[in-house]
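Q: Protein A?
A:
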Amino acid sequence: MRLLGVIAMLSLAAGAALGLRHHGESEQGVAGIIARLRHIKIAPRRALPAGVGSPATALSARGPIIGTNDGVGWGRAAARTIVRGHITWNRVAVGSPPNTLAGSLSDGFKVLLIVANVADGTPLSQINPSSWGAEVVSELKASRGVGLAEAGNESYLKADVANPVQYGRMYLDAVEDMKAARIHIPLLFNMTGDIPHDTWADPQGWSEDDHEGGWLREAVAGVPGLAAAILANGVSIHPYGALGENSHDDLGTGSAAAEESIANTVLGSIPPFYVTEIGYALGRCGAVAGACSERQQATKLQAAYEVFLADPHIYGIWWYQSHDDPTGNFGFMSNSNRVRPAFKVLSAIASAAGQ
């Protein structure tokens, strides 16, 4: 659907109310980005199937969830600014302070919780699926107030080896354990596209979606019952990369549609998709996931979100992230809580999406 022409007016007022100040960025330049949002398209989303979601995950009539990663731990004033900017969801990992579930709920966020995340250096071959499923249930029972859960983070990268069948076993065990425990929170399946035959650092060839391979096809082929479980819950993707790019059905804004297509082929339908990380880092001028200036970061954010908002299969988008951290200067705020142009643009998008 088309957005009403009030977006620019609301966004400029919000920026003034939040005391927006840009170092080296003109208000007029950022206002131009905001003004272009009045013509942005938000595709209508179909109602989620019975049993998928909860009152906390209900979509607005206009568009998908708009959230952030690591929105808590920077002080109550920062959290209040984010929530008042209509960015009302926070992505949290169990056991990762200071960005906690309790802090998120206290500060007014709804929460997407990463559960039972395997350490990055641990191969999935060392994980017992039954024990892992029980861990998911235990963490969710101890985490009241969660709206969505994610079955680990980038599970296709653990120990630099993609092991789709093992992850499929783990995921299905967790879904079945959750059903037995009467936990009805959607559990998102980590999805990617093409995967290496050996390690990510030294692929030695690829298992590709286009050649009857890839992460999802291998997982579903090796784990009976997995397809139905994914369809009933949804998937998470991290389409970092260039605008319009699709690299290995994984990187770039164009990869979202490619992954939806392969899901339709492999699963027989397209489940709800959630972009749980997307961002552009300041200081990486010329890099596909980088930005040369704060204004360019805001411009790239707008362009990426235009793609996702127009996609009726994407039900949530979480910016990576609220502040800078050792992974890069991705923040829509500085670490002194100064809001950047990207915040103003994201706030306008969130307001337009009905949050």
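Q: Protein B?
A:
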Amino acid sequence: MRDVVVVGAGPSGSFAAMKCAERGLDVLLLDSQRFPRDKACGGIVGESALRLVGGDAMSVVERVGIGNEFHYNWKHIATHHRHEYFVKRRMFDHYLVRRATAAGAELRENVRATGISIAPGCAIVSTTGGDFESKIVIGADGVNSVIGRSMGLSHHAHDCKYVAVKAEIDVSPQKARELEAEDPPRQKTYFFSDLIGFAWVVPNIGSVNVGYGSVFSRGKNLKNRFHSFLAALGLKSQLELGAQVPFITFERVYGERVMLTGDAGGFVDPWTGCGMEEGIIASSKAARICKDAIDSNDFSVSMMSRYQDLCHDQLSKIKWRGSWIKALDRVMPRESEFPFWTELIIGRLAPSM
């Protein structure tokens, strides 16, 4: 019997496991893959998340960005000046996994969760490596979370997801300067009048992370659009990966003995597609509830609902922003373009993204 089983060892899951282990809890961390491994992601971490991670997290930061430049139909329309930290997911995720195990969590790789059930006195996580009993389960297993779906908590319908593709492309210093993502390092975000979604260019050491995403319902020609975007930048694709990303959260991110974090709980900013910061912040709160529940021997729905209360403001912001994306997808005819005044709206919203 474990105190906590965390399913999914991405940033949200590994950080939850680390914080639980630091509180003296017996933690098992499961993941379906072996680390290091890559993910389709812009690789952007905000100051709040990096501060929570602490330690020597800067050792895996590729670049410290000074802001985000916004473009609409290739025209620069606004700049958000803030510090951002650019990472490669295969390095950042592996770093957090090592931090979790150093804190005392046990890691089991190549173990895929297949379901969860609640029995008298425990939760049982079924996996390809056998069943594991635990007092609490934290589901951090992505947008199509097995843990969430098994509990009736998480099922992101197709109209509540982005689909994205990214490539990590080696570039010379001269090419990086031509892309205007260096000197100083900064993220570049692109919006287009015929796209409900966005594209990005993020500089790393010796490479750029380039991606393109749209709402799921309009992602049929995404790869072709991505390759056209790369061609316009004078780049050729390398190490291409795809992913689905939620852009709205749920009424509940908890159940009896269960909490959801990261993409599994919809902790993603719908306007930017960034989820690492939202997930890490949520995981810090989930770890607090784990400690309180175990100290009081209370694993009821009422106890787990305190997690939702702690995340209230965060979830409300995500839900409000996500509702706008969902509404746009419903009212915008296919193959149509946004009206001329959309550029002005995006320019005004940019400082809050």
